Each structure stands twice: as structure tokens, then as C-alpha cells.
Amino acid sequence: MANRAGTSHVGSCLSCADILAVLYGEIMRYKPQDPDWEGRDRFILSKGHAGSALYATLAEVGFFPVGELDNYDQPGSRLLGHASHKVPGVEVSTGSLGHGLSIGCGMAIANPKSKVFVLLGDGDLNEGSTWEAIMFAGQRKLHNLIAIVDWNKLQAMGESAKILDMKVLPRKAAEFRWTAMDVDGHDHNLLRLALKDATEQGKGPCIIVAHTIKGKGVSWMEGDVRWHYSYPNDGELDRALTEIRKCY
Ligand SMILES: [Mg+2]
């Protein structure tokens, strides 16, 4: 999709693909034929620049035809570069960082019988509004709110720890009355266990720090911040797909 459209964020998408696969494959309740079903669980991609990963997931589980992915980020397409609510299954448009968790708080209050999952980037944690949401959700004991941080240690312009070090997050979240846990964000078994644990009643809001690798699955993209904005040319696409297919 990134190659065809000539657009960015392939590294960010590969970073969170496993998380999306487990969430939509094994954890969340939803009806692809009825995207607005009231009993559905909600998902917010706070790191909205990874929209193509979310679109691919939604297409794979049946919200719209997989063939439409060919139109990603093309003129006239509803599959905009950042996550768009005009796409079936996308709850809210995102891309300006720092909004997802606050919106998730509202959804959790409005839909107490549903789970609300919010996927943040580690760069998302730099935003003050994210911390307002952390304080608010803890105070209100939002038991159905689960935040997952795609902790790939990089953000658009460099290493997250050098830009604004957020390793205090689990401790701070716990102090604000969240249950905090760590998991390997590429291990489906561990992700499943952590997400099931987080959705148990009485845990309060949960934050899962998912340790991930930007560009996961393509050796020469992994951990290289250039793949935040770069897109693969035709030759690079072939090499990347060859490597990714070996993973499965
Ligand atoms: Mg990041």
C-alpha cells in the first residue's frame, strides 16, 4: 500500500501489525456487516499515521473488500493516509497525536458494557493531553479502558528516549491508579494473555506497554527511523515482501 501510494509510515505499521492481528483476531467483539452495532468493542488508533495497518486489518476481517486497499491514499479514495472515520470500522479520525486516550475515556464512560482499546505510539506519550487522560481515567476507575502503547523506542524524528524519555510511564500510570503491564508486542501468545488479563473486571483502567520494533519483519527497516517517512520503491518492496513472507 505504501509503495503504490508513495506515502509514509510503513515502519510504524509493521511495528503494530501483530497487536492489531491479536486484537481483531482474538479479543475484540464486533460485527463487520454492522459496524455501528451497539454492543461492539471500540478501538481507537491514537497513532493515526499507521492508518494503512488498521485499514488492512479491517479489510481482512470483512469490514470492506480487500481489493479496496489498492486505492489506499489515492485521489478520491476514502482510505486516507491517516485513519479516517469515513472507513467502515474506524471509530474516529486520528493523526494529530495525543487525542486518542481522551476520546477513549469518553467512549468508556458512554459504553460501560463494551471494552475500549486505545493504541498509542510511544511518541504519543509526549502529548500533555495523554497525561490528562491517564489522570482522569484512574480517578474515574474506567474498568473497561485498555491502553496499549506500541513502544518501538522511535518516533518521527529520532529516538524517543533522547527526545523525551518516558520510561517512567508504568510507574506513573500505577500511581494514577492504572494496572500496568509489559509484554513482547510481537508475541501473539503473550499479547493474547495480556489483553485477556487486562479485560478482566475489577482491574481498573489497564495500560499495556508492548515492546515492539519499528519496521518489524524487514531486517533493513527494523529500528531504522528513516522508515517513519520513507516508502519502499519497487525493488525494496519485493525484498521486503520476501522477508515478511518468511515470518509466516
Ligand atoms: Mg514510536
Task: Describe the protein in words.
- The protein is of the alpha/beta class.
- The protein has one domain (2-247): Thiamin diphosphate (ThDP)-binding fold, Pyr/PP domains (Rossmann fold).
- Helix content is 37%, strand content 13%.
- It is built from nine helices and seven strands, in the order ααβααβαβββααβαβα.
- Helix 2 packs parallel to helix 3 (51-60), helix 2 crosses helix 8 (188-198) and helix 4 packs parallel to helix 5.
- It binds magnesium ion.
- Magnesium ion is lined by residues 121-123, 152, 154-155, 160.
- Magnesium ion binds at residues 121-123, 152, 154-155, 160.
Please estimate the helix content: 25-40%
Beta-strand residue percentage: 5-15%
* Structural domain tally: 1
Ligands bound here? magnesium ion
| Strand line-up in the sheet with most strands | 1-2-3-7-6
Q: Roughly what is the average pLDDT, rounded to an integer?
A: 96
CATH superfamily: Thiamin diphosphate (ThDP)-binding fold, Pyr/PP domains
How would you briefly describe this protein structure?
By secondary structure, this protein is of the alpha/beta class. The mean pLDDT is 96.
Main features:
two-stranded antiparallel sheet; 13% strand; 7 strands; single chain; alpha/beta; Rossmann fold; binds magnesium ion
Task: Annotate the secondary structure layout.
Elements: H1 2-5, H2 10-27, E1 42-45, H3 51-60, H4 100-110, E2 116-121, H5 128-139, E3 145-151, E4 154-155, E5 158-159, H6 160-163, H7 169-175, E6 179-184, H8 188-198, E7 206-211, H9 234-247
Parallel strand pairs: 1-2, 2-3, 3-7, 6-7
Antiparallel strand pairs: 4-5
Helix pairs in contact: 2-3, 2-8, 4-5
This protein binds magnesium ion.
Magnesium ion (MG) is lined by residues 121-123, 152, 154-155, 160.
